[in-house]
Amino acid sequence: MSKKILFIYYQNIKPGGVAKVLANLTSELAESGYDVEILFLMPPHKDFYLINPKIKKHYINSFDNKYSKFAIYIYEKFKFIPKIYSIYSYLYDLGTYRVLKKWIKKNHHNYDTIVSCWYKLSSMISLDKKVSKKTIAWEHATYNSGGVFWHKILGRYYKNLKTVVSTNIPGEKYYKKVNKNSLTIYNPMDDEAENQTYIPPDRKKNIISVVARLDPEKNICEFIDIVSKTNFPEDWKVVIIGSGREESRIKQEIMNKNLSSKIELWGSRNIDEVYQLIASSKINCLTSTIEALPTILIQAMFFSNVLVAYDCTYGPSDIINEKNGFLIQMHDWETFKNKLEKLTHNEKLLNIIMKSSYKESKNWRKEKILNQWKKILNN
To answer: Are 161 and 132 in contact (CB under 8 A)?
Structure first.
């Protein structure tokens, strides 16, 4: 009899690294004979990332709880107040906890293993000693995310979980202090990325790509500042895919710095359009202040991009080395600018690193990753 596994996440309605790797991993497991189901904490919705038809999906509306409704009300009415988003978030989380707890209590016995795909959901489940014993926390944020409440207070209950799967080495080292069964498993890519052949420079355009949510932690405004100070050749441009809370501010920054001819803001796009962009670009950048394992950097390698990113906590340092790009100290604008200038003005160097970056992508193929998952799921 095959193992029955439940994955839990918020949604699959828009671009996002977690939803993407969730679709990838669950599909691979379903094709390997596992009985996989997914619980989304939203009403039924059209999938942004394709979910394997073998997988059964459940939906519970975390926005329908009275606390979540109140959270939405105060955020819409008082969004001008500083820190109102934090208040909204805690109220929504309380509503989510109540809805999730009710569903889990009724249905958890149907599953051999539960995989929670976000630290808040893992914290909620870890409070139930019976359910937590068969729950794996799949950590897609840094281990210190969530501040005092989620990290310091509820984080201690991770000791109740079956396993903590971190997506970077520093995370594994930290979680081993709380749960000795913790380990690192990198995120699997999809077949389209894995099957991609090397794209030579003459089949690409002079584009620097950025694919990220336009939220504060992605630090796009700082990237725009860097671009404004960088001396690019005339035929180079920047293309940004993403949407989020800072979208209006970013549009204004581009206008204020007279960069409309240099930076194109494409908004939210589907995965095919993301792949079309990184297949066309030669350099992929990331200026996040916080990550776990930025999937876009790995995908960009498969599509023959040079990587330039801040050495934020954590993730980029697991991916970037001298063979695929440049890892820049946080907020070191000058070095970031110099690397972009060096790459865009030195075609020979750029072409060499593009090719070696593609070769590095072979180290991220999914066979080893899937074997690691199967091992912990079969225990």
So the answer is: yes
Same domain, residue pair 228 and 269: yes
147 and 160 housed in the same domain: yes
Residue-range definition of the domain harbouring residue 358: 191-364
Q: pLDDT tens-digit profile of 240-251? A: 999 999 999 999
Q: In sequence order, what are the beta bridge partners of 325?
A: 307
State the total domains in the chain. Answer: 2
64-106 tens-digit pLDDT: 999 999 999 998 999 888 889 899 999 999 999 999 999 999 9
Tokens encoding 151: 């990290």
- Of 323, 272, 326, 322, nearest to 299 by C-alpha is 272
| 94 and 239, same domain (yes or no) | no
13 and 154 together in one domain:
yes
Q: Which two tokens stand for residue 159?
A: 């000791």
CATH of the domain at 229: 3.40.50.2000
Q: What is the pTM of this model?
A: 0.80
Smallest CA-to-CA distance from 35 within 3, 57, 67 is with: 3
Residue 183 shares a structural domain with residue 310? no
- Specify whether 342 is located in the same domain as 231: yes
Looking up tokens 């379903």 gives 30
SS (H, E, C) the chain: CCCEEEEEECCCCCCCHHHHHHHHHHHHHHHCCCEEEEEECCCCCCCCCCCCCCCEEEECCCCCCHHHHHHHHHHHHHCCCCCHHHHHHHHHHHHHHHHHHHHHHHHHHHCCEEEECCHHHHHHHHCCHHHHCCEEEEECCCCCCCHHHHHHHCHHHHHHCCEEEECCHHHHHHHCCCCCCCEECCCCCCHHHHCCCCCCHHHCCCEEEEECCCCHHHCHHHHHHHHHHCCCCCCCEEEEECCCCCHHHHHHHHHHCCCCCCEEEEECCCHHHHHHHHHHCCEEEECCCECCCCHHHHHHHHCCCEEEEECCECCHHHHCCCCCEEEECCCCHHHHHHHHHHHHHCHHHHHHHHHHHHHHHHHHCHHHHHHHHHHHHHC
